[in-house]
Design a protein that fits this description.
single chain; elongated; 409 residues
């Protein structure tokens, strides 16, 4: 009996006029599969052998050039992802960022939106552009968090009330912000409407408020806005052997020897560093800020890198955190961290808020590790970074705003 022909376009019809494959022969080539596989069922160009992609990675599934094994970034960080001594982790060096993380599906968070994986309850970044976004120098420290609340003016109330703040003879708030370099006037208006601006401790959301720039205390995202252009703030990277004075009767090198363009300004240093200590020293003509930064009640943290003879016995860090009995009382460090260790030497980072004379050297002497080299790398939010020794740089407006907010100004 003759078999009925199959319906359709003929794709199911075997080759050879309806004859099936010979016993023990190779399977017939399926039409339409020419671009997907090569001979013997092997993948064509676009894939390597065994179904592995030919581009973007080498054989055995290893990542292509531009990243190390295991998804670690090839450039831009030290081994283990630890930051360099005296340097904090920024957004550019944070593990899991889009640049060099090697992990799929991760990227930079958009401004104003919480980053992926942020801890519940953490404060989100303020929406919109940041203050002083066009500033080309200084360090971007972001918004101020947990700052001491300033004294409110009489009648000033939180929650957007402008009672007692409006000065009919003053200047519009958005104009004051724009003249201080915060942003354009239109952007400053958006910041006010978003509740990001405070005047004398009260959040202002109305655009018609006028203030006196000479007396009003203004904050944007917690950053103090300095409207007095006569006040200046500098960072000096003091070399070893320089005395922390503006003039020295004995003729030793002092701070004024490094003031070139600022010789006509009357500056004074905030605190002191002994002659053998190097690092960050603040210079300003703002007397109120200098007094608060050096007053013990504000507990401004200072970070030091300390090189001592090694090895260091276990438990020294806990001993210094608990407190060391000195001739002028008990002193302790806020944090103690081992940075590096080489044969015969140990590098330690300590943070403390005490301003006593030679306090770091005296504490390490008390635990049996005299200081070989001492460098102050940070005061409050201001970091020394890669600033050259003997140089003086002006603080950015964001940095000075953070410094003022740190002591409740």
């Amino acid at each position: 009996m003759t078999q009925a022909p199959r319906s359709g376009s003929g794709r199911n019809t075997p080759r050879g006029g309806g004859k099936g494959p010979k016993p023990g022969g190779k399977p017939a080539r399926q039409p339409g599969a020419a671009g997907g596989q090569g001979r013997g069922g092997q993948p064509s160009s676009g894939q390597g052998r065994g179904g592995k992609p030919a581009f973007g990675s080498d054989r055995s599934g290893k990542p292509a050039s531009g990243s190390e094994r295991g998804g670690k970034p090839a450039f831009g960080s030290e081994r283990g992802g630890k930051p360099a001594p005296g340097q904090r982790r920024d957004g550019s060096g944070r593990p899991g960022s889009a640049a060099g993380s090697g992990k799929a599906g991760q990227g930079k968070a958009r401004p104003g939106k919480p980053a992926a994986g942020r801890k519940p309850g953490a404060k989100a970044q303020p929406a919109g552009p940041r203050p002083f976004g066009r500033e080309r120098f200084g360090q971007n420290l972001g918004p101020v968090r947990n700052r001491p609340r300033p004294q409110r003016a009489e009648g000033g109330q939180a929650g957007g009330s402008t009672e007692g703040l409006h000065d009919p003879n003053g200047v519009r708030l958005q104009k004051v912000l724009a003249q201080a370099g915060v942003a354009s006037r239109r952007v400053c208006e958006d910041m006010i409407a978003a509740g990001r601006v405070e005047v004398d401790g009260a959040v202002v959301t109305e655009l018609g408020v006028r203030v006196d720039p000479a007396t009003a205390v203004i904050h944007v995202d917690g950053i103090r806005i300095q409207t007095d252009e006569t006040l200046v703030y500098y960072v000096f990277n003091k070399p070893k052997g320089v005395v922390s004075t503006m003039e020295d009767p004995e003729g030793r090198p002092c701070i004024s020897d490094f003031l070139k363009k600022n010789k006509d300004q009357r500056l004074f240093h905030v605190g002191r560093l002994d002659q053998a200590t190097e690092g960050l020293l603040l210079l300003t003509n703002d007397g109120e800020l200098a007094n608060r930064l050096t007053h013990p009640s504000y507990e401004v943290p200072k970070t030091y890198l300390v090189q001592v003879r090694g090895p260091m016995a276990q438990g020294v860090g806990a001993q210094m955190r608990d407190g060391i009995e000195l001739e002028d009382g008990v002193s302790r460090v806020d944090s103690f961290r081992l940075v590096d260790s080489t044969p015969g030497h140990v590098l330690v980072e300590v943070v403390l808020h005490s301003g006593k004379n030679r306090i770091v050297r005296r504490m390490f002497d008390a635990v049996g590790h005299p200081v070989e080299r001492l460098v102050r790398t940070q005061v409050g939010p201001i970091r020394l970074g890669d600033q050259r020794q003997g140089s003086i740089r002006a603080l950015g407006r964001t940095e000075s705003g953070h410094l003022l907010a740190l002591v409740g100004m």
